[in-house]
Amino acid sequence: MHDDHEEEDYRLDYDHVEIDHDSDNKEIKGHDFNPVEEGSALHLEIHRAVDELGKYALELELIPENPLSKDDFKKFIDEIMRKPTMACLENGADIIGHVKSMLIVGDHGSIMSSIVDENKPTKITDAVEIDTIDDAILVLHIIVHGIWDDEIRKLTLPLIEEICSQWEMEYKILADYYDTEKSIAHHELPDQ
Fold first, then answer.
1. Which residues contact 136 (CB under 8 A, 6 or more apart)?
2. Spatial separation of the C-alpha atoms in residues 41 and 43, rounded to whole Å
3. What is the pTM of this model?
4. Of 31, 60, 160, 189, which sits with the fewest C-beta atoms within 10 Å of its C-beta?
């Protein structure tokens, strides 16, 4: 009689693990440099490179020259999401992964918006308790297939400026996230 575990070629099976690679939850579980371990930083980088997904995120403080109604702010949000999305599609992106935003209105709630198909209306979930907005934070995420982060950024930033100007909206960039290098070659396994 023998112990099956001693003679088997024991291999961990990660197929049962499901991870939302585009989730806002950035907690990485597992060894960061294990390319086959679901959830490791290197595995996620490989996943992105293979899928050819470009990602760009921007956080803006928005201050309208005159307070805007919540309904007008929703129109502004739709435009500030849709125009960069269409610019990406017109300049090499072939599929929308996910374009989403969250407008945070202080302690008054938020408006969540999402585009997964450019031919459908923007999905907007309004949880703002006031009717007029004079200051807000907008977090915008653009994920598309076919172009890289730096190209998405190059297409998006001028449109942000143009749209804010048309809406008489003062804005300040609080955070600007994009990868300048898409190659995974800069990832090396640590010396054992």
1. 61, 62, 73, 103, 104, 105, 106
2. 5
3. 0.69
4. 189
